[in-house]
Amino acid sequence: MSSGLALISIFVLAVFVGFEVVSKVSSTLHTPLMSGANAIHGVILVGAIIVASHSDNTLQLTLSLVAIVLATINMVGGFVVTDRMLEMFKPKKSPAPKSDEVK
Amino acid sequence: MSRDLYDLIGLVAAVCFILALKGLSHPKSARRGNLIGAAGATIATLVVFFYGDQLPLKNLPLILLAILVGLAIGVPAARKVQLTQMPQLVALFNGVGGGAAALVAIVEYLKLGEEAAKVGEPITAAVLIATIFTVVVGTTSFTGSIITFLKLQELMTTRPVIFPGGRFIIAGNLVAILVCSGWVYSAADTTSVLVLMGLSALFGVLFVLPVGGADVPIVISLLNAFTGLTVAASGYVLEATLLIVAGTLVGASGTILTRLMADAMGRSLFGTLFGAFTATATAAGAADARPVKSGSAEDVAILLNYARRVVIVPGFGLAVAQAQHTVRELADLLTAKGIDVAYGIHPVAGRMPGHMNVLLAEANVPYDQLVEMDEINPTFPQTDVSIVIGANDVVNPAAKTTPGCPIYGMPILDVQQSGNIIFLKRSMRPGFAGIENELLYDPKTTLLFGDAKASLTKVVGALKAL
Question: Which residue ranges run through the membrane (chain A) (predicted)?
Answer without folding.
Answer: 6-23, 35-55, 61-82
